[in-house]
């Protein structure tokens, strides 16, 4: 049986002041080197036994894209893999290039790996080494496997040569730990990760990390009149649905700032009475990835020991089909008193989030961010290469997109103008859940959610169109990407709460 929490056996990371030498090569089974394509030729001439490298460099130096060079095991026993890259690459391009290097490295299973750069100025050297470390950690992280003979895990230690100390890589390590957790949870099959087991494993994680927990069950949500969430949970054959709250408290009592993270945790989405097709339902165990990204962001920030408090609110339910399923044209009342005319049962994510946002906002956080695999319209607009962003603060737009560029998890902000609300006018309720067509549904979903966030609370909504992508994305090699953790850590620590 596969554990619901990923194993805590991440490779040990060492920070060595020495450059790549014959000795360091020999001390590691595999050596990965990022070389400045412009200056690398001259620098390689200075290396011992460089003739083979120079010949290969001549063959690939005119290529427009990074090219891999393979050097078979040398006389001292270490193997070397190199990639030549241009200077001035943006973060996404650096991650792409280093992922290409790690993909080639997977053909050389090794317990010890050394990472180094050649020919870059110090700041860029640290940037490309951070990108390479991210690719190695993402590519070597195990994911749940139910195969009779699961794949072996080889990597035990990583050495970073002349790249700085632990503080230089702390954010990368914490972010990738969070990304691993998000991908692990999302990969679990729906018969293993359901509302009940998800709640229990989150409580287990909270105990391990020293967080506080609170679970608002169905009975409590009825008292809170959370009719939007309860409508979605109505058809479940169990009573395990509810809203989980995980709380991290900063050690410093000086900070009064509070962050709220909110995640859509639909553990399986059939579409409800408006049943999905086979193809549309096939991957709907991943519809809880918003919640996985929210708790993974909490984990990353906690590992960084951020000096502000965090509450993480997770809307945990399934959207099932059955005689009690909520139906089009019903009118339900959310926790903030808003009445909602139901249009489509497969727009369940915004229903579950409506009450969760309402409850989270009552704590008056200085910033609230929600993550959700919410709309196909956002995928249609951006593909899976970027995710959509929305905010009730226009002045945050530049910071939101800048965090995407500097983290390599790119986002694009969409309009949030109030006149879109007229498309959701209902003849019998305060608001329609959605429209009959999918035109601009990502924008209308954000405008719908906006009704459940008070104007006093700065809020960012991330529609995770990049949650899954065939072939992976940037440095993430798996179809389930865990997208959002890197962006969130960057946005929160360097823009919102810096």
Describe the structure.
With 498 residues, the chain is of the alpha/beta class. It starts with 11 loop residues before the first strand and ends with a helix. The chain is elongated, with a radius of gyration of 24 Å. The longest helix is centred in the middle third of the chain and has 22 residues, at 166-187. The strands form three sheets. Strands 7-8-10-9-13-17-14-15 form an eight-stranded mixed beta sheet, with helices on both faces. The protein has a six-stranded mixed beta sheet with strand order 1-6-5-2-4-3, with helices on both faces. It has helices at residues 22-26, 40-45, 51-60, 91-105, 122-140, 166-187, 195-209, 218-223, 227-233, 278-281, 289-303, 348-361, 376-382, 397-407, 441-450, 485-496; strands spanning 12-16, 30-36, 67-71, 79-85, 112-118, 157-161, 212-217, 242-248, 258-269, 309-319, 331-333, 339-341, 367-372, 387-391, 411-413, 431-432, 459-463. The chain contains 16 helices and 17 strands. Helix content is 36%, strand content 20%.
Largest sheet: 8 strands, mixed
Would you report the number of β strands?
A: 17
Q: What is Rg?
A: 24 Å
Tell me roughly what share of residues is in helical segments.
Answer: 25-40%
Shape: elongated
Q: Strand sequence of the main sheet, in spatial order?
A: 7-8-10-9-13-17-14-15
Helix vs. strand class: alpha/beta
Number of DSSP helices? 16
Mean pLDDT: 92
Extract low-pLDDT stretches: none
Oligomer: single chain
Which percent band covers the strand fraction? 15-25%
């Amino acid at each position: 049986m596969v554990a619901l929490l990923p194993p805590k056996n991440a490779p040990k990371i060492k920070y060595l002041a020495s450059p790549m030498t014959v000795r360091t090569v020999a001390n590691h089974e595999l050596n990965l080197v990022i070389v400045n394509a412009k200056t690398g030729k001259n620098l390689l001439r200075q290396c011992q036994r460089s003739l083979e490298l120079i010949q290969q460099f001549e063959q690939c130096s005119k290529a427009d894209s990074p090219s891999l060079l393979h050097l078979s095991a040398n006389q001292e026993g270490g193997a070397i893999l190199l990639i030549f890259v241009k200077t001035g690459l943006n973060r996404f391009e650096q991650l792409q290039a280093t992922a290409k290097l790690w993909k080639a490295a997977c053909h050389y299973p090794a317990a010890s790996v050394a990472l180094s750069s050649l020919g870059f100025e110090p700041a860029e050297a640290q940037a490309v080494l951070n990108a390479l470390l991210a690719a190695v950690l993402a590519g070597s992280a195990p994911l749940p496997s139910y195969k009779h003979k699961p794949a072996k895990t080889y990597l035990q230690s990583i050495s970073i040569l002349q790249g700085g100390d632990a503080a230089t890589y702390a954010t990368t390590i914490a972010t990738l730990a969070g990304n691993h957790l998000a991908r692990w949870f999302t990969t679990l099959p729906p018969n293993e990760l359901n509302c009940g087991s998800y709640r229990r494993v989150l409580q287990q994680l909270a105990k391990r990390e020293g967080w506080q927990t609170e679970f608002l069950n169905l009975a409590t949500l009825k008292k809170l009149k959370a009719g939007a969430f309860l409508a979605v949970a109505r058809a479940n054959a169990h009573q395990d649905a509810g809203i989980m709250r995980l709380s991290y408290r900063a050690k410093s009592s000086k900070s009064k700032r509070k962050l709220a993270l909110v995640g859509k945790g639909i553990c399986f989405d059939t579409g409800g009475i408006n049943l999905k097709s086979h193809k549309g339902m096939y991957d709907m165990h991943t519809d809880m990835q918003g919640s996985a990204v929210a708790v993974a962001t909490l984990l990353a920030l906690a590992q960084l020991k951020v000096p502000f408090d965090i509450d993480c609110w997770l809307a945990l339910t399934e959207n099932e089909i059955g005689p009690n399923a909520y139906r089009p044209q019903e009118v339900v009342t959310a926790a903030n008193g808003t009445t909602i005319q139901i249009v489509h049962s497969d727009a369940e994510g915004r229903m579950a989030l409506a009450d969760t946002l309402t409850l989270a906002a009552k704590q008056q956080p200085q910033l609230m961010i929600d993550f959700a695999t919410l709309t196909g319209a956002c995928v249609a607009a951006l593909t899976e290469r970027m995710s959509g962003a929305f905010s009730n603060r226009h002045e945050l737009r530049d910071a939101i997109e800048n965090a995407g560029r500097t983290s390599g998890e790119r986002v694009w902000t969409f309009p949030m103008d109030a006149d879109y609300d007229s498309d959701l006018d209902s003849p019998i309720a305060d608001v329609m859940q959605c429209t009959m067509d999918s035109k601009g549904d990502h924008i209308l979903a954000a405008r719908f959610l906006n009704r459940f966030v008070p104007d006093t609370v700065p809020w960012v909504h991330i529609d995770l169109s990049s949650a899954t992508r065939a072939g992976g994305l940037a440095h993430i090699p798996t179809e389930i990407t865990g997208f959002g953790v890197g962006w969130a850590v960057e946005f929160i620590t360097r823009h919102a709460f810096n």
